[in-house]
Structures are given as structure tokens and as C-alpha cells.
Amino acid sequence: MQKNETKIRLQKYLADCGVASRRKSEEFIVNGDVKVNGEVITELGYKVNKDDVVTFKGKVVEKKEHIYFILNKPTGVLSSSIDEKGKKCVVDLIDTDERIYPIGRLNYNVSGAIILTNDGQLANKLNKKSQSIKKIYQVRIDKQINQSTFNKLFKGFTSNGKKYDNLEVEVLDIDKKNDSTLLKLSINDTKNNDIDNIFEALGYKIKKMKRIEYAGISIEGLGIGEYRVLKLHEIRQLYSL
């Protein structure tokens, strides 16, 4: 007789196998797309063990070895798995037959570090915690920064009732000829889109933005559009968050 602790919920099994996120897998179960040992299962609390045969839309689902990549995303590429309008997505840049998902999404016009994996459990965990994960950006703004603005960024400030803090800022370059500044910005507890709001509130526009590090994992050494497999200690680092 199988012990209960050897069983896992069906939606988690599907996510671990890379079928979809756990939430999307729940939709598939409720819709009757999943069978266990030939029987349609629509119960979300249903548990399976290693000897059960699970099928999704008629195809056998098996656990696969997890893979993890970090990509230096180019601008003009969507941070998603698929686009209905046919635009290029980050998964199109990775040479793998596995179904992978992006972690730590970036806006269409922002380049830099993004993680992709077929580990549904990790993807779900980190995407839920996205706002509290440390990210480091290089940001080129359209004017030379002054001391007052630097102090506001360094100490934190409030604009339109929203407080911007937990920022670490470093001036990398001041281009007097073209009247611009390159900053290194480390940020916590703020959505990606808020970076635009931060500089807009201070009277600046962003000319270019690149994320150089996500959750302590850097794109150093990677050209635009290049990627590499994560090292074991980096995977453990992500799981520890």
C-alpha cells in the first residue's frame, strides 16, 4: 500500500512536468483535459504517485529533468512563452525542445537578465515573489544628474503619495556632450514599471534600460541574445529566496 507522503497533488505533478503553471494546470484538470490511469480527473485535491499514468490531452506526461537558463534578453522581444500575434518571445531564443517559462519578466523595450526554466514549481514561487526580489539595472537618463536628484534617489523620496525607497544608486558615467547620465540602480520591493515613474517624478526620461542582475545572478559575459545554463549554486540560490 502506498504511503500518503509519496503522493503529490495532480496540479503540482503537471507543473513539475512542465505542462503549465500550477494555476493553469488546475484549469486543465477542471476542464477534463487530464486523465490518471485512463480515468478523467476533475478533482483539484486528487493525488498521484510515481506508478500512476498521467495523460494530458491524450499524451503521457512524465517528469523530466529540470533545466535552468539565464538569458540576456534583447529589446523588442516579449517576456512570455507565446504571443498570439506572432511576435518573438524569449523562449524562441533558447535552443531546447523542453517547454520552458520565463521568470522575472522585462518590458518589451528593456533588455537584460531573465531566467527561463521548465521547473514549474520554482517559476511559480519566484513570479509570486517578484516584487521582493533584488534586481540591478543600468539606466541611461536624458540629462546630467545633479546632487539634489542623487540625494533623493539615495535617501528615498515620495511623489504623488507613493514612496520610493530601498534604492541603491551609483553614477557610472556623465556624458556632458550628449547631456545624459548612466546610473546603476539596485532596487527592491518595486515593480519594474515603477522605474519609469521614479525618474519621471524627478523630471527625467529614460533613454535606455538594461537589467544586469536578477536575484544575484548576473548576465556578465553574455552578449545580447546570448544565454547560459545556471550553475548548481545559482539554482540553490533561487530556491532559497
Describe the model.
This protein is an alpha+beta fold and 241 residues long. Helices cover 21% and strands 31% of the residues. It contains six helices and 17 strands. Strands 7, 8, 9, 10, 13, 14, 15, 16 and 17 form a nine-stranded mixed β-sheet that branches. The protein has a four-stranded antiparallel β-sheet with strand order 3-2-5-6, with no helix packed on it. The protein has a two-stranded antiparallel sheet with strand order 1-4. Strand 11 (157-159) and strand 12 (162-164) form a beta hairpin. Helix 1 (10-16) crosses helix 2. The longest helix is centred in the N-terminal third of the chain and has 9 residues, at 22-30. The model has no long low-confidence stretch (mean pLDDT 90).
Number of strands: 17
Radius of gyration: 21 Å
String of helices and strands: EHHEEEEEEEEHEHEEEEHEEEH
Q: What is the average per-residue confidence, as pLDDT, rounded to a whole number?
A: 90
Largest sheet: 9 strands, mixed
Features:
single chain, 241 residues, 9-stranded mixed beta sheet, 4-stranded antiparallel beta sheet, 21% helix
In short:
This protein is of the alpha+beta class. It has six helices and 17 strands.
